[in-house]
Amino acid sequence: MENKINSANDNPPSETNPDFIIKSNGREIRFKDLSSKYDQAVIKTNLGDIKVKLYVNDSLLTVNNFMNLAQQGFYDNTKFHRVIKDFMIQGGDPLTKDDDWSNDGTGDPGYQFKDEINSYKLVRGSLAMANAGPDTNGSQFFIVTAEATPWLDGRHTNFGEVVSGMDVVDKIEAMEKNENDHPLNDIIIENIELVEAE
After folding, report:
1. Phi-psi group of 179: left, alpha or beta (phi > 0 → left; psi -120 to 50 → alpha; rest → beta)
2. Euclidean distance between CA atoms 195 and 198, whole angstroms
3. Which end of the chain is more exposed for a tag (fewer CB within 10 A), N or C?
4. Confidence check: pLDDT of 5 > 50
5. To which H or E segment does residue 171 belong?
6. Span 87-116, pLDDT tens digits
């Protein structure tokens, strides 16, 4: 797998070339740099809203992947499919749109991209990419509910933090679940709205 920002010249996006290019599995995925326009997002769920600040200066590719998927409606009607008390809640899998729980947690947008490990620790309220190992990021993300998760630091890209709605995160975390940490009642991400930078 190879993925780069602007693979033609390895430079960050600019006014003349405003795109990111990810090369994954022989495909080229291109999306716009939205980080100069937006720096926050609201994850609207059937249990309430979660507003997150995005680390546009520290995880540019990850933030833009998240924003582009959100703007395209990719996350609409997906579910938080994994909740672990005093640890985290996880969502962003397109396979959660149906009623079949058996494949929840295995979906992605059809490509993977590299980690962007930064200096932020994964603590309560952190927004990070879920992965299946190094450089396997796609669309799934999680929000930390533990005070700290040092065993995850350096292994997952931390690309934002909750600035309001942590009570909603706590409500989601407390939902009744089965033995696979899957909520018994649907926790739906209705959509994710991007918020313009001030």
Report:
1. alpha
2. 9
3. C
4. no
5. helix 166-173
6. 999 999 999 999 888 899 899 999 999 999
H or E element that contains 62: helix 60-71
CB 106 within 8 A of CB 48: no
* Residue bearing tokens 């405003």: 18
Name the residues annotated as catalytic: 82, 87, 90, 131, 142, 152, 156
* Distance between CA atoms of residues 84 and 90, nearest Å: 9
Structure tokens at 72: 């395209």
The Cα 73–Cα 66 span in angstroms is 11
Cα-Cα-Cα-Cα torsion 152, 153, 158, 162, nearest 10 degrees, comes to: 80
Decide if pLDDT at 4 tops 70. no
Give kind and range of the element (H or E) at residue 169: helix 166-173
State the Cα angle at 93 between 88 and 95, rounded to 5°: 135
Burial class (CB in 10 A: 0-12, 13-18, 19+), 99: exposed
Q: Which residue has the tokens 């993300």?
A: 141
The kind and range of the H/E element at 20 are: strand 19-24
CATH architecture of 34-196: Beta Barrel (2.40)
Quick check: helix, strand or coil at residue 145? Answer: coil
